[in-house]
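ESCALATION

Customer reports they have been waiting on this structure for their group meeting. Please prioritize. Original submission:
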Amino acid sequence: MADRLTVGVVARLSRYLQVLTQAKKMGKDRISSLEISGYTNINATQIRRDLSAFGKFGRRGVGYNVDSLLAEIRTILRTQGQYKIALIGAGRLSQAIVRSPIFTEHGISIAAVFDADPKRIGRTAGANVVIDAARLQEVIRDQNIIAGVIAVPAASAQRAADELVSAGVKIIFNYSEALLNVPPDVKVHTSNPAAELITALHQQLA
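Update from on-call: job pushed to the front of the queue and completed.
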């Protein structure tokens, strides 16, 4: 089913998933489309339209059962824990990433953490033991890792990307400031909080 979803639907469902995950943590049993709208700034009508395309999950005047809708969206997006990613770099940013529950909450597991610094190799990063970056290609192939997260200084980012590409990874999340050169069939998603903030401010204040 997920392979037929448009990019816009996937993006919105991912945001609903984030809200539902937090609602569950807060102990909420039910949530309305208006409440989800308030947290996502997505029109409530659009939310109901998105969800009704996959079945009847809620009741008018009652809202959606948080647990049920959470499970349904995870199934739709195929985020049931089968996606393994590799984290390149074991510095402060990487430590924050592995300690955050956001990946596991969305069915993604950090299967391996790599670093080239001998002082970091063998230490722990969350539940992972940091692996020598020289073994990156071997481990990625052995563990069937499908995506890589680059959290290293800009000067080391291209080399990390090259290693991931050589290992067969087709999806890279770039947390560095480097502009990466990769083959056309490799997708790079760059995280830039400043750019996202500027976009949000422009949309709100324009």
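Sent to customer with the following note: The first helix runs from residue 7 to 25.
Escalation resolved.
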